[in-house]
Amino acid sequence: MLKSANIPISFALSILVVWIMLDTWIRPLSFTDEVLPKQWSLWLLPVYIVLFSVCWFILRPFYRANRATGHQIALIFLIYLTFHIIFFFFNANTDRILASLYLISTWLFVGIVSSLSRTSIEQWQRLLCHFLYGQAVFLASYALIVSFGSEYVPVENLQWLRIGPLSFPQLYVGEQGSFLRLAGLMNNPNTFAAWLVPGGLFAWFYLLKQFPRRQTFLHAALLLLIIIALLRSGSQTGIYSFLLLALLTSIRMVPGTRRRLQVTACYVTGSLILLTAFAFQGLLLRLLSLNGRFTLWQAGWRASADSFWFGHGIGSAPRGLQEQLNEQVLYTFHSTPITYLYELGLIGCLLYGAVFLYLFYRLFRIQTTDLAFLALLLASWLGLLQFTESILVRPSGFYFIWLSLLAYTSLRRLPPHDSTHT
Question: E strands within 261-374?
């Protein structure tokens, strides 16, 4: 990925990987779900400023690639987000520290990825895909190995595997003697499953692409490892998003219309069998309700009514949900659109939806290359995940990957006979 003759550019791309995964990897190993302490955002802000300064020193002078005209919708959303944060900054409901982190980190990251040349941003997309693949393999391996540990700390929801003087912890959810949902090194099982999905999809993609060559055995083994860890997480969102996107990958990669129809028929038949089994076991209603998320979404819709157009301010969703449920919560509305509706109002929510539609429109037009199709898988992964998880409502890895995809898809496509080099 980083075999570029321009070593400084390669170093800058490595810093972007650190930027994306910083928030995820340095969180304390405790169940924090979607709400983090304010001091967490406070100390992340100077770290992002330092990372930006290093990238600016490496990349200057900034290069401005030609952009497609449709990228203006993303710019409008970012401008609305900026003015919304400034206007609501002193509102009693706004989390000022989180709002500051949101505003500054967003524009700093956009400044970096939008300054990359066409070659560099394609190189960045390849590096990102390979990193997500490797990260999923590591997370799955670690969680499954530590699951053989016999020491539990129920109060902290920690499972320990001790090998001589070495101790390896992981987070879990559930009661001993029953099914334990593994969270690995993440802060809850849903986040753990969310990071496994792209790795599993890339393994499936490379398996289909290289079949029946010898490398397919490695991808098949890694795919099996990730699937087992995904099932052990017990995350409904992670499992159904992986199955749907694996079907999309199969339809795209399998040659021949007849064989594609056969693959689709197998998926549909398997899904019907699973739904029937769930119905007989009484799990279908629980599956359809997504473990009570409908209740949270209804609460979010009701809470948004008193400031429907412009919302209540960044970071106000936990307080709004707490007022609806009359209890202390560690999460928001478990849906990015609902959370944006409450915090940014209907205008902000519609602009956010328009940006996502533009992202899919561009990716479907350019997904003839493998790199563009992998980007489409990442966008689809975030698109499915956002409906049941509040993944894009704070500056974290998911949010910065989304911004990276916007920067990649907004590049103006050159005719086939033109050079792709700057």
Answer: none
Residue 55 has pLDDT above 70, yes or no: yes
Q: Which residues contact 124 (CB under 8 A, 6 or more apart)?
A: 13, 16, 113, 116, 404, 408
pLDDT digits (tens, 9 = 90+) for 169-178: 898 887 655 6
DSSP 184-222: ETSSSHHHHHHHHHHHHHHHHHHHHHHTTSTHHHHHHHH
Question: Structure tokens of 359?
Answer: 């992202």
Residue 289 phi, psi (nearest 5): -80, -5
pTM of the shown model: 0.89
Predicted local distance difference test score (pLDDT) of residue 203: 94
Q: Which of 277, 271, 333 is nearest to 304 (CA)?
A: 333
Residue 64: DSSP 8-state: -
d(CA 252, CA 262): 13
pLDDT of 229-239, one tens digit each?
999 998 888 88
What does the alpha-carbon distance between residue 364 and residue 295 come to, in Å, rounded to a whole number?
Answer: 34
Residue 79 to residue 72: CA distance in whole angstroms: 10
- How far apart CA 402 and CA 320 sit, in angstroms, is 26
CA gap 235, 13 in Å, rounded: 31
Q: What three-state secondary structure class fits 56?
A: helix
374 touches 381 (CB < 8 A): no
Higher pLDDT, 8 or 275: 8
Q: φ and ψ at 287, to 5 degrees?
A: -65, -45
Say whether 101 sits in a helix, a strand or coil: helix
Query: Can you give the pLDDT at residue 37?
Result: 66
What is the rounded average pLDDT for all residues in the chain? 82
Q: What are phi and psi of 168, to 5 degrees?
A: -125, 115
